[in-house]
Design goal:
Blueprint: H1 2-22, H2 24-31, H3 37-76, H4 81-93, H5 104-163, H6 168-173
Length: 174
C-alpha cells in the first residue's frame, strides 16, 4: 500500500511539473520579463484550478462508465462484484476482457460496453485537455492582436510624414 501511495505522489509531482512547464500562462510570463511576477503566479494557479476542476469532471464520467460496466457484467454474465469490477476496469482502460463470457446476453453487453468505453475515453480526454487547448488558443489570439497592433503602428508611422503640413515638394519650392 505504501508503494502505491509513493507511486501516486510521484505521478502527481510529474503531472504538476509538466503542466506548469507547458502552461501557456507560464510561457506568457517567461516571454514578458517586465510583468509583475505575482500576476503570472496567479494566472498559473487559475489555470491549475480550472485543470483540476475539469479533471474531476472527467473522473466523474469515467466513474459512471465504470459503474455501468460493473452492473452490466454482474447482471448479464453472473460475475461476482469483484470480477465485474475487474472486467469493467479492463474494458474501460482498453486492455480487453479477463473472464470468458458464456451467455449471449453477456457477449452483447460486452460488445456494447466496449463501444461505450471508447466513447467515455474520448469524452474524458476532451474534458481534461479542454482548458489547455482553450488557453493555447487564447495565447494565439493575444499574439495575433499584438502583431496586428504593431502593424497598425508601423503603418501610422509611415503615413505621419506624408500627412505633415509640409511635403517634400513644397519644401523644395521654398
Amino acid at each position: 500500500m505504501m508503494e502505491l501511495i509513493k507511486l501516486f505522489g510521484y505521478g502527481l509531482a510529474i503531472l504538476v511539473t509538466v503542466m506548469f512547464i507547458l502552461s501557456p500562462y507560464h510561457l506568457e510570463h517567461t516571454q514578458h520579463k517586465s510583468r509583475n511576477p505575482d500576476e503570472g503566479m496567479g494566472s498559473i494557479l487559475l489555470f491549475f484550478g480550472k485543470f483540476l476542476k475539469y479533471l474531476a469532471l472527467s473522473a466523474l464520467f469515467i466513474f459512471l462508465g465504470l459503474i455501468v460496466g460493473i452492473l452490466g457484467y454482474h447482471w448479464t454474465a453472473d460475475l461476482s462484484w469483484l470480477d465485474s469490477l475487474v472486467e469493467a476496469s479492463m474494458i474501460l482502460s482498453g486492455m480487453g476482457p479477463v473472464n470468458p463470457l458464456s451467455t449471449a446476453s453477456a457477449k452483447v453487453f460486452a460488445s456494447l460496453y466496449a463501444l461505450f468505453s471508447g466513447l467515455i475515453f474520448v469524452i474524458g480526454m476532451g474534458i481534461v485537455l479542454s482548458p489547455l487547448i482553450y488557453s493555447l488558443l487564447g495565447q494565439f489570439s493575444v499574439s495575433l492582436k499584438q502583431e496586428t497592433e504593431e502593424q497598425g503602428k508601423q503603418q501610422q508611422e509611415k503615413q505621419e510624414p506624408e500627412q505633415s503640413g509640409w511635403s517634400e515638394s513644397k519644401r523644395e519650392k521654398l
